[in-house]
Amino acid sequence: MTRGAERQTYEIRVRGDLTEALVAALNPLGLQLEDTPDGAILVGTFRDQAELHGALEAMQDLGIQLLEMRQRAGWT
User: Fold this and answer.
1) Which of 27, 30, 54, 64 is most buried per CB count within 10 Å?
2) Distance CA 49, CA 37 (A)
3) Which residues of 24-59 are buried (b: 16+ CB within 10 A; e: fewer)?
4) Bridge-partner residues for 68, per DSSP?
5) The overall pTM is greater than 0.85
6) Short-list 15, 61, 39, 22, CA closest to 31
C-alpha cells in the first residue's frame, strides 16, 4: 500500500441467507450485513487488495458462496 492511499469500500453479494453465527464471524473482518429484497450483501472497507483478499478467503473458509463483488462508488 502506498502512503496516503484511500480505503476502498466493496459490496459482496452472497448466495443464501447468513446465520447469526456467520454474521458474528464476519464482524472481525469489518464486514457488515445489508439485507435486501434480492438477498444478502456484505459491505466492507479495505486498505488494500491484500486485506480484501484475506476477507474473501475467510469467507470461503466459512463456506459462504460469493455471487458478485463490486466497488461501491463514492464510499471510503
Assistant:
1) 64
2) 29
3) ebbeebebeeeeeeeebbbebbbeeeebbeebbeeb
4) 13
5) no
6) 22
Going from N- to C-terminal start, the domains of the chain cover 8-71
Q: What is residue 57's predicted lDDT score, i.e. its pLDDT?
A: 95
How far apart CA 1 and CA 23 sit, in angstroms, is 28
Q: Whole-angstrom Cα distance, residue 59 to residue 55?
A: 6
Instruction: Please name the residues in contact with 68: beta carbons below 8 A apart, sequence gap of 6 or more.
Output: 11, 12, 13
- CATH level 2 (architecture), domain 8-71: 2-Layer Sandwich (3.30)
CA dist 32 to 1, 2, 4, 36, 63, Å? Answer: 23, 26, 25, 13, 17
pLDDT of 1 > 50? The answer is no
Residue type, 22: L
